[in-house]
Write a structure and sequence with these properties.
Layout (H helix, E strand, L loop, with lengths): L1 H39 L5 H12 L3 H16 L6 H14 L7 E3 L4 H9 L1 E4 L2 E6 L4 E7 L4 H5 L6 E5 L2 E2 L5 H8 L6 E8 L2 E8 L1 E4 L3 E6 L3 E6 L6 H14 L4 E5 L8 H11 L5 E6 L5 E5 L10 E5 L6 H11 L4 E4 L7 E7 L5 E10 L15 E2 L16 H12 L2
Helix pairs in contact: 2-3, 8-9, 9-10
Amino acid sequence: MEENSYIKRQRVYKTIMLVILTAFITFILTSIFISNQLESNSTTNNSSLSSIIQNLTGGSSLQKAMATIEEEVKEKYLNEYDENKAIEGAMAGYVAALGDPYTEYIPADEMEEYTQTIMGNYVGIGIYMTKNTEKNLIQVLAPIRESPAEKAGIKTGDFLVKIDGVEYTGDEMTQASNKIKGEEGTKVTLEILRGEETLTFEIERQKINTNPVYADVIDGNIGYLGISSFDEGVAEDFKTKFQSLKEKGITSLIIDLRDNGGGIVDEATKIVDYIVPKGKEILITVDKNKNEEITKAEEDVLIDMPIVVLVNASSASASEIMAGALKDLGEATIVGTKTYGKGIIQQFLSLSNGGGLKITIEEYYTPNRTKINGVGITPDVEVELEQSVTGLPTDQNDTQLNKAKEILKSEQ
């Protein structure tokens, strides 16, 4: 009886071992197959690899569609073609089809220039641009102070129509930006539409250091800090220059955000942190799943004096975050005209192929949960600007700046 039981146990044991051995051999063979497939495709690109993976796993509808197109092109397409360029075009097309002017694919060969621009240093003519969706044209948000573009006479609101004789639309802003950049000392010709007038400018490319914080003392004791963009390091530069102005005896402050198209959100919130009490809400962001993230002030107040913030229709994104927070919290008087209305935040991602993706991920709201996107911020005091101003804090024709000075003097 016990002998029969032992024999049965041995048979079961052998059966289990046979199943395990069969599974192990199957796994090894499958691994060898996949390895051979990957090895045979090692000279191709990531798209081919994606096709192998999606054939094994099922893949998404996009992967299946692209795999089919890739297979048909390789098997039947008559002419020679650059496969890497085709893949780049497919990726760019997918992103462009989202219809969001702020979400874009950056090819690998443009990444260096793109990151240099984010850092605030590049070779070009020194202009901030945006897409005018109504006209589908490229519009100048602002020339950088003391840049070749400003010296040549390029102005905020100009429409950039042609570069070196080639016409560009608003959908081609990235290509236009890359065309404007080039080797230091070379020249680029721009055709500009200003009102009903068409103007031509030949401008020499130079190394651009945006130096986005401009400091001055006006009318004896009013500090002036103009921020042209929120590039990396701007908050620390702002802090240093404010402390220098304070040592000169200023008793109030004008922060000029006119023509500031935005930049790095963290830089803007750091500056707000210098002004508002610790623990106060600065910014509310909401993602696609309605998840909220609240940014609060973390530092002790650095700037404790009357403040006026100047804004206009070209103050956008991070500028609106700053102006909106200071307005809601009662820490500054906002003067000028309604802001641009870009209340969404982009994240930049580096991709495995060397390219990059700038993608809209969140919408932001002011501390009072005021919507900004497509709406803009209405100033506390609305003042239109004369067209002939130079943009310098010494310009006596600057009606918005004059109103700021008037408000601050009345508070002394």
